[in-house]
Protein backbone atom coordinates (compact mmCIF):
# COMPACT_ATOMS: atom_id res chain seq x y z
CA UNK A 1 0.00 0.00 0.00
CA UNK A 2 1.41 3.35 -1.03
CA UNK A 3 -0.45 6.65 -0.61
CA UNK A 4 -3.51 7.89 1.29
CA UNK A 5 -6.42 5.49 1.83
CA UNK A 6 -9.88 7.06 1.66
CA UNK A 7 -13.20 6.07 3.20
CA UNK A 8 -16.57 7.24 1.85
CA UNK A 9 -19.58 6.86 4.15
CA UNK A 10 -23.27 7.75 4.18
CA UNK A 11 -24.05 8.98 7.70
CA UNK A 12 -26.65 10.65 9.82
CA UNK A 13 -26.30 12.06 13.33
CA UNK A 14 -28.86 12.38 16.11
CA UNK A 15 -27.30 15.74 17.14
CA UNK A 16 -25.99 18.83 15.35
CA UNK A 17 -22.44 17.65 15.98
CA UNK A 18 -20.43 14.57 15.27
CA UNK A 19 -16.96 13.16 14.93
CA UNK A 20 -15.83 10.16 12.94
CA UNK A 21 -12.50 8.48 13.55
CA UNK A 22 -11.47 5.90 10.97
CA UNK A 23 -8.64 3.49 11.71
CA UNK A 24 -7.18 1.02 9.22
CA UNK A 25 -5.57 -1.88 11.04
CA UNK A 26 -3.90 -5.14 10.11
CA UNK A 27 -4.76 -8.19 12.21
CA UNK A 28 -1.63 -10.08 13.26
CA UNK A 29 -2.15 -13.77 12.41
CA UNK A 30 -0.18 -15.10 15.37
CA UNK A 31 -1.52 -12.98 18.22
CA UNK A 32 -4.79 -11.68 16.68
CA UNK A 33 -3.72 -8.24 17.85
CA UNK A 34 -4.52 -5.15 15.83
CA UNK A 35 -1.69 -3.15 14.25
CA UNK A 36 -2.54 0.44 13.31
CA UNK A 37 -1.60 1.21 9.70
CA UNK A 38 -3.35 4.54 9.11
CA UNK A 39 -6.03 6.78 10.57
CA UNK A 40 -8.18 9.71 9.61
CA UNK A 41 -10.40 11.97 11.69
CA UNK A 42 -13.19 14.24 10.54
CA UNK A 43 -15.21 16.67 12.65
CA UNK A 44 -18.51 16.28 10.81
CA UNK A 45 -19.46 19.95 11.02
CA UNK A 46 -16.50 20.38 8.63
CA UNK A 47 -17.58 17.76 6.09
CA UNK A 48 -18.40 20.42 3.46
CA UNK A 49 -15.69 22.94 4.36
CA UNK A 50 -13.02 23.43 7.00
CA UNK A 51 -13.21 27.17 6.40
CA UNK A 52 -16.98 27.41 6.95
CA UNK A 53 -18.15 24.64 9.34
CA UNK A 54 -21.91 24.09 9.59
CA UNK A 55 -24.04 22.40 12.20
CA UNK A 56 -25.52 19.11 11.02
CA UNK A 57 -29.21 18.67 10.30
CA UNK A 58 -30.42 16.04 12.75
CA UNK A 59 -31.10 12.63 11.14
CA UNK A 60 -30.31 13.93 7.63
CA UNK A 61 -28.23 11.52 5.56
CA UNK A 62 -25.04 13.06 4.16
CA UNK A 63 -21.99 11.72 2.35
CA UNK A 64 -18.53 12.19 3.81
CA UNK A 65 -15.07 11.32 2.62
CA UNK A 66 -12.30 10.85 5.17
CA UNK A 67 -8.72 10.84 3.93
CA UNK A 68 -6.45 8.73 6.10
CA UNK A 69 -2.77 9.46 6.73
CA UNK A 70 -0.30 8.50 4.03
CA UNK A 71 1.24 5.05 4.21
CA UNK A 72 3.93 2.97 2.59
CA UNK A 73 3.64 -0.55 3.92
CA UNK A 74 3.85 -4.07 2.55
CA UNK A 75 1.01 -6.24 3.80
CA UNK A 76 1.86 -9.96 3.91
CA UNK A 77 -0.25 -12.18 1.64
CA UNK A 78 -3.29 -13.60 3.42
CA UNK A 79 -3.38 -10.84 6.05
CA UNK A 80 -6.72 -9.47 7.19
CA UNK A 81 -7.45 -5.76 7.40
CA UNK A 82 -9.93 -4.16 9.77
CA UNK A 83 -11.63 -0.82 9.35
CA UNK A 84 -12.57 0.52 12.77
CA UNK A 85 -14.98 3.45 13.13
CA UNK A 86 -15.64 5.38 16.32
CA UNK A 87 -17.24 8.65 17.39
CA UNK A 88 -14.40 9.59 19.74
CA UNK A 89 -10.62 9.29 19.93
CA UNK A 90 -9.73 10.71 23.31
CA UNK A 91 -7.12 11.95 24.20
CA UNK A 92 -5.88 12.39 20.62
CA UNK A 93 -8.95 14.41 19.57
CA UNK A 94 -10.98 16.77 21.72
CA UNK A 95 -14.56 15.43 21.94
CA UNK A 96 -17.54 17.04 20.22
CA UNK A 97 -19.65 19.32 22.47
CA UNK A 98 -22.51 16.78 22.47
CA UNK A 99 -22.48 13.01 22.48
CA UNK A 100 -23.88 11.77 19.20
CA UNK A 101 -24.95 8.48 17.70
CA UNK A 102 -24.01 8.09 14.06
CA UNK A 103 -25.92 5.79 11.73
CA UNK A 104 -24.20 4.39 8.66
CA UNK A 105 -26.35 3.73 5.60
CA UNK A 106 -25.42 1.14 2.97
CA UNK A 107 -27.20 1.52 -0.36
CA UNK A 108 -26.57 0.88 -4.04
CA UNK A 109 -26.86 4.50 -5.20
CA UNK A 110 -24.12 5.86 -2.97
CA UNK A 111 -22.17 2.97 -1.51
CA UNK A 112 -19.76 3.11 1.40
CA UNK A 113 -16.25 2.39 0.17
CA UNK A 114 -12.69 1.94 1.35
CA UNK A 115 -10.12 2.78 -1.32
CA UNK A 116 -6.63 1.42 -0.76
CA UNK A 117 -3.80 3.03 -2.77
CA UNK A 118 -1.66 0.28 -4.25
CA UNK A 119 1.86 0.63 -5.59
CA UNK A 120 1.81 0.31 -9.36
CA UNK A 121 4.35 -0.22 -12.12
CA UNK A 122 5.14 3.48 -12.56
CA UNK A 123 7.03 3.35 -9.25
CA UNK A 124 10.20 1.38 -8.73
CA UNK A 125 9.67 -1.85 -6.84
CA UNK A 126 13.35 -2.60 -6.32
CA UNK A 127 14.40 -3.61 -2.83
CA UNK A 128 18.16 -3.17 -3.28
CA UNK A 129 18.40 0.54 -2.47
CA UNK A 130 21.50 1.75 -0.63
CA UNK A 131 21.19 3.33 2.79
CA UNK A 132 19.99 6.95 2.68
CA UNK A 133 22.64 9.66 2.51
CA UNK A 134 22.90 11.84 5.59
CA UNK A 135 24.71 15.16 5.75
CA UNK A 136 27.20 15.87 8.51
CA UNK A 137 25.52 17.29 11.62
CA UNK A 138 26.06 20.79 12.97
CA UNK A 139 28.49 20.87 15.89
CA UNK A 140 26.58 21.87 19.00
CA UNK A 141 27.09 22.02 22.74
CA UNK A 142 24.37 20.54 24.96
CA UNK A 143 24.18 22.83 28.01
CA UNK A 144 21.34 20.98 29.76
CA UNK A 145 19.68 17.64 28.97
CA UNK A 146 15.94 17.45 28.39
CA UNK A 147 13.69 15.88 31.02
CA UNK A 148 10.04 15.17 31.64
CA UNK A 149 8.17 14.30 34.85
CA UNK A 150 4.50 13.38 35.14
CA UNK A 151 2.55 13.41 38.38
CA UNK A 152 -0.96 12.02 38.79
CA UNK A 153 -2.69 13.53 41.80
CA UNK A 154 -5.98 12.11 43.08
CA UNK A 155 -8.04 14.19 45.51
CA UNK A 156 -10.06 11.56 47.40
CA UNK A 157 -12.57 14.08 48.75
CA UNK A 158 -13.53 15.80 45.49
CA UNK A 159 -12.56 12.74 43.37
CA UNK A 160 -10.68 15.01 40.98
CA UNK A 161 -7.65 13.62 39.16
CA UNK A 162 -4.98 16.12 38.14
CA UNK A 163 -2.17 15.28 35.76
CA UNK A 164 0.81 17.61 36.21
CA UNK A 165 3.49 17.49 33.52
CA UNK A 166 6.86 19.18 34.01
CA UNK A 167 8.71 19.23 30.71
CA UNK A 168 12.13 20.76 30.12
CA UNK A 169 13.36 20.70 26.51
CA UNK A 170 16.92 21.23 27.66
CA UNK A 171 19.34 23.83 26.33
CA UNK A 172 21.68 23.68 23.34
CA UNK A 173 24.27 26.19 22.10
CA UNK A 174 24.91 26.31 18.33
CA UNK A 175 28.10 27.55 16.58
CA UNK A 176 26.55 30.96 15.79
CA UNK A 177 25.93 31.60 19.51
CA UNK A 178 22.19 30.83 19.41
CA UNK A 179 21.07 29.12 22.63
Strand element count: 13
CATH H-level superfamily title of the largest domain: Galactose-binding domain-like
Our Rg estimate from Cα atoms comes to: 23 Å
Q: What pattern of helices and strands is seen along the backbone?
A: EEEEEEEEEEEEE
Name the overall outline. extended
Regarding quaternary structure, what we see is: single chain
* Protein structure class: mainly beta
What name does the CATH topology of the largest domain carry? Answer: Jelly Rolls
* Termini separation: 42 Å
How many helices? The count is 0
Strand content: 35-45%
The first-level CATH class name of the largest domain: Mainly Beta
Pfam families: PepX_C
Organism: Rotaria magnacalcarata
GO molecular function, one term: dipeptidyl-peptidase activity
Domain Xaa-Pro dipeptidyl-peptidase C-terminal: 1-109
Defining key terms:
mainly beta; Jelly Rolls; four-stranded antiparallel β-sheet; 0% helix; extended
Amino acid sequence: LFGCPTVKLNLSSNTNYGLICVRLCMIDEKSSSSILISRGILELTHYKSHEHPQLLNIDEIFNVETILSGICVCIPAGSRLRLALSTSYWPIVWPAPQLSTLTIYFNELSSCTLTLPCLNEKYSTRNDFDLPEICQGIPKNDLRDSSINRFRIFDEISEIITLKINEDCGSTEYPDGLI
